[in-house]
Amino acid sequence: MGVKLLLEKAHVEGIRTYEVYRREGGYRAVEKALKTMGPDAVVEEVKKSGLRGRGGAGFPAGMKWSFIAKPEGVPRHLVCNADESEPGTFKDRYLMEFLPHLLIEGLIVSSFALGSNATYIYIRGEYAWIPDILEQAIAEAKANGWLGKNILGTGFDLEIYVQRGAGAYICGEETALIESLEGKRGNPRIKPPFPAIKGVWERPTVVNNVETLAAVVPIINMGGDEYAKIGVGKSTGTKLISACGNINKPGVYEIDMTISVEEFIYSDEYCGGIANGKRLKACIPGGSSVPILPANLLLKTAKGETRYMNYESLSDGGFATGSMMGSGGFIVLDEDQSVVRNTYTLARFYRHESCGQCSPCREGTGWMEKLLKRLLEGKGKITDIDLLWDIQRKIEGNTICPLGDAAAWPIAAAIRHFRDEFEWYVTNPEESQRRNYGLAHYADPREVVA
Amino acid sequence: MSDQPQLFKVTIDNITIEVAPGTSILEAARKIGGDVAPPAMCFYSKLKGSGGKCRTCLVEVSKGSEKDPRPMPKLVASCRTTVMDGMEVKNITSERVVDARAGVVEFLLLNHPLDCPVCDQAGECHLQDLSYDHGKAGTRYEFQRRTFKKHDLGEYIQLHMTRCILCYRCVFTAEQLTDKRSHGVLDRGDHAEIATYIEKSLDNDFIGNVIDVCPVGALTDKTFRFKNRVWFLKPVDAHCSCSKCSGKVTLWYRGDEVFRVTARKDQWGEVEDWICNECRFEKKKTSDWTIEGPRVIDRASVISQGHYVGVQKPKETFEAVLDGRKPRLFMDIHSVSGVNRPDINLSLIEGPAHSDDFDRVTKKD
Fold first, then answer.
1. Is A10 domain-assigned?
2. Which residues of A touch B54 (CB under 8 A)?
3. ipTM of the assembly?
């Protein structure tokens, strides 16, 4: 069993309620931070922990916090990004649904560190039932004196508000989220200025992922140095992985980032192997926008080393032979799955979710979807593959926000690693409509699990 | 010297210029002028918050500043990136920029109907100029283009959303010039559209300016639609004493008739002074105005065609070049080619030349 910091108490009966959560040692971090540490000490502790943003980019959280501008007389805000809309990612939902008080606790400590007196949780519109759970938890916390005026007699005031989104993937991008929170159309802002200087209502703002803020609780409880000892290198602490696809045990797992990808997929503690005795073909290791990897490059890096479930190892080899940790949406494809269909599904998603603000993403995503649809229907041309490559190249890096990159990377990786499958759809149009590509040489070399 | 603001040195395409801090790369490049200035489809210096959307003005920053000489990893939108002291920028000297820009032009034209022959904007369309300067001749797009129904925005303005490139300029104009903005962007992605939600007309004294800021033919003047081509009109600066606006306009004449009134546009296609609807749509008689003189239009613009001053006739005429023959078709100037044989004298054929004529002449021989 690996170390569990976030989900340790997830299965305690009634943990959703304040009484049980408090009895299990909840809100200790608030007591410790507010009574014995100052805001700067909390930031310092988070810096020491090496905690990296769990939303996808993996930017060090302590560093992000230290960037926040502190002009005199201007309120600052903390915003919790619960707009978890990346296909394949559902770790934040689990956390909010089963451990709402853990998030609230993390928010209180983080707000204290950043000096935010009004903190917002921006939650994905499709998570219709979760705002009620969070609001219940906020009400309970308030009734017990953890929120409101003069918390624990320290003079620190805090209110937490839950804001429902309206179902746009783009509002998970921090500046689009801020726009949406202000009641505007969720278009990403042009940076600079960054939210740390001018965020919500032009005030300094920090936007953090749910899991990042929840992880502040164990960091304060155990100390930053202790937290940094878990994991390996710059991948400290534990990470929630939401595993789905053709595996025996889909679900949310907490890992300590020292286990190998192979162990994660095949051990009974985690995914429990590929479902129905099939073989592994490919995997998208960090949510839909990271590059897909074929089985051979997933289990071993290009140098032949074992690949581990952490930031550095998953991105080993760059985009040529590696991928990214991303948001931890682990999507597994077995030998029966078509990469072309998978890529088309993703392209359709990004076309639907592009905000339409900047031209490369607005027009390019639609074009790529149409080309992929044509390929999938067996009506494609062999030149379409190079065309797709060229389109994604012209989108990547040329857009306002990372959605353009997110739309381009999966397509680039699919063509890079599975080009012959795309070609097969062109050269065998009739056969491709009846069956999937014979994939023996992509599959994992290990024996078929009986 | 302390009251003198410190100037930043910027080098764009190897040309160094000193500009005030806070200037954007695009504005600095415009000070140099010529090809160094990146094209801009969405940026409008008079509209706060505009820019950054079309991505045509992308440039490469090869040196961040004197203090931090690291290059910027990505191409940046020059209209929204402010200069730093010692910054080095590559625009047309960077292959990456030229490539990315060609890509952006292709993206912008992807769903554009290319109905220039029937579009009122033709001749003063920024997208036409942009694709001519930076685009490719052909398209690789083989699918149906996105279309919208024409949308009536009241008495004076027609919205042809199919042509729109979603630069948001009209949205900013309405937001900053009128008291209540009643149009905006609906929907998202490649089906996003400028609209008023329920066929609402735009009525505000300054809403007519959205026509001038529109870089393409998406927003057109209903009092001018299909009346004339801009290059047949002669622009004349004029003014009147208007209680609402500056009254400084350009009148577009053909003969004695004023076909339309627009605001005066500078060399970057930006309006100098906003004008009110009354000046734009109602005052279409010469007697309403005090004429100042002809408007100077960029020589490269198609609007200047036929208005050249001091053009000299070449000494050599076609007759002199072609040994006394009077060609009716210009292909005749190549004396020998597959189509055009020297034995056929096109000057002898009556009426427009036709393949039958060639056959006949050949048979006669």
1. no
2. 358-359
3. 0.89
Taking the Cβ of residue A370 and every Cβ of chain B, the question of whether any pair is shorter than 8 Å is answered with: yes
Predicted local confidence at residue B82, as pLDDT: 92
**B9-18: which pairs have CB atoms within 8 A and are 24 or more residues apart?**
B9/B85, B9/B86, B10/B83, B10/B84, B10/B86, B10/B87, B10/B88, B10/B89, B11/B87, B11/B88, B11/B89, B12/B36, B12/B59, B12/B89, B12/B90, B12/B91, B13/B89, B13/B90, B13/B91, B13/B92, B13/B93, B14/B93
- Closest in B55, B185, B188 to A398, CB measured: B55
**Average pLDDT of the residues in A229-253:** 93
Question: Do A178 and A246 reside in the same domain of the chain?
Answer: no
Residues of B in contact with A356 (CB under 8 A): 166, 185, 187-192
Among A137-141, B37-41, B79-83, B303-307, whose mean pLDDT is lowest? B303-307
Q: Yes or no: say if B328 and B346 are a contact pair by the CB < 8 Å rule.
A: yes
- The domains located in chain B, with CATH, are 8-103 (3.10.20.740), 144-226 (3.30.70.20), 228-311 (no CATH), 318-364 (no CATH)
Whichever domain contains A418, its CATH number is: 1.20.1440.230
Query: Which H or E run contains A95?
Result: helix A91-98
Q: For B253-309, how does the pLDDT look when each residue is reduced to its tens digit (9 = 90+)? A: 988 899 999 999 988 889 999 999 999 999 999 999 999 988 888 777 888 776 555
Residue A365 has its nearest CB partner, among B75, B165, B189, at B189
Distance CA A348, CA A77 (A): 35
Residue A11 lies in a domain: no
Report pLDDT digits (tens) over B96-135: 999 999 999 999 999 999 999 999 999 899 999 999 888 8
Could you list the residue range(s) of the whole structural domain that residue A141 is in? 18-229
Quote the pLDDT of residue B301: 80
The answer for A 188-227 residues in CB contact with B (under 8 A) is 190
Which pLDDT score is estimated for B97?
Answer: 94
